Amino acid sequence: MRDLLLLGVLPFLVYFALKRPIISLSLWLWTSLVPMQQWSYGMATSVRWNLMFAACTLLGILFQKKEYDFRASGLLFLVLLFFFHNTMSTVLSEADSKYIWQRWENYFKAIIFFFVCCSMLRQKIHFEAVMCACLMSVLVIAGLDAVKFIISGGGHNINGISSTFNDNNLSALATLMCIPMCLYLLTQYKQYTLLKYILFGFILGSVMFVLGSDSRGGFLGLVVLTIYYILNSERKMFLIVMVSIIAIGALSVMGDEWFNRMDSIKSADEDSSFMGRVISWKLSLLLAIENPFFGGGFDAIIDIPTWEALKQSFDKVSFIPSPEPHIPHVAHSTYFQVLGNQGFLGIFIFALMLMKTTSSFSKVKKQAEKGSWLYHAAFFSKISIVVFMVSGAALNFAYREILLVYFAFAVCLEIVAKDNMKKEQKAVALD
Question: Does this model's pTM top 0.85?
């Protein structure tokens, strides 16, 4: 039944996608974050939805040039430079070439999406369409899992929400980075009662999903998001009361095992899971030391020959205490992931990207009229990046589409702010 429904609406989706490229762009993102295999089981899975909407977007840009407004910027240049550096790392990598190039191809597709975003997002409705795509993909799946978790009294096991976010940690961070989008939409459409309750439902479901995921990095990110939002809000007391009520209700569902796991953050050096991450971080650092400019390529530390070679040189980083490595593990940190994959030069470029993104949001928030959609979009987007920088320290998240969405927001919000300033200056000159 679900397949028939999806196939029935497909012609209409394609029609509107070709008619309005921003709709197609949103559908492109929707099918990237959560592949259609999550929504269907039969005939609909044979359709290449993501490729179709990507093609519709590019065709729409080609035939509707008014939708296309590409402008260079510092952040855009840094993202291009980072991708070029990734390409060089891939070319020079000695790891399994088939796997490495597959990862490069996936990132290449994400970069194309980023550049299309940068050329199209110019109006309030454009940004909100992309936000809705994130909510209707990530938060819908997260919300369904959260309902199961609550109904089961905390017994439901939360794993990945899609093949893109295929474990509890990645899913928790993806969900966290979408919560500020809900908060933004609440500021813009709180007069619509039904929509307001739907957005509240998304937020509550997301909070329960993050808590139920047992992700310590996700829990830290949720704490940071809450504190940062309260400290920068004008309704601090109201938010403190609301957060306290939600926290009491949410934590009442959690069992002793959850509290014990979160409490292990205080004794990380005694936790075997954490020490496994330290081993991965040391191997990533070692890989960067041996390949300082271009690193080892995408996830080279899980390539068996590369891992065996690094294991023989493990004593070079003995100044960081940890057990000896026994089995390969991914980096378990965005920063060490980039460090090992692209070397010291790569992590330097990546850090510049994050710094430029946060400064762009701060700049737009300062320039925009207080309370305007532009002000709120910059404010809540910055919250997402701050959450990413905290939780991403314990998760592999460097090449995900959601991060590139926020990079595109930073580029485009700054362009919109500059255009608004020029219009105001022209208006003053005419007066």
Answer: yes
Per-residue pLDDT tens over the stretch 206-224: 999 998 888 888 889 999 9
Look up residue 189 and give its two tokens.
């459409």
Backbone phi, psi, residue 92, to 5° = -90, -5
User: Residue 264, class by beta-carbon neighbours within 10 Å (0-12 exposed, 13-18 middle, 19+ buried)?
Assistant: middle
Residue 184 has, within 13 A of its CA and on its CB side, a CA count of 27
Task: Give pLDDT, residue 255.
Answer: 67
Q: Which of 402, 415, 409, 344 is nearest to 380 (CA)?
A: 409
Q: How many CB atoms sit inside 10 A of residue 400's CB?
A: 23
Region for residue 219 given its phi and psi (left: phi exceeds 0; alpha: psi -120 to 50; beta: otherwise): alpha
pLDDT-based confidence at residue 194 (cuts at 50, 70, 90): very high
Other C-beta atoms lying within 10 Å of the C-beta of residue 10: 14
Share of the chain above pLDDT 70, in %: 93
Question: Tokens 């070397």 — which residue?
Answer: 343
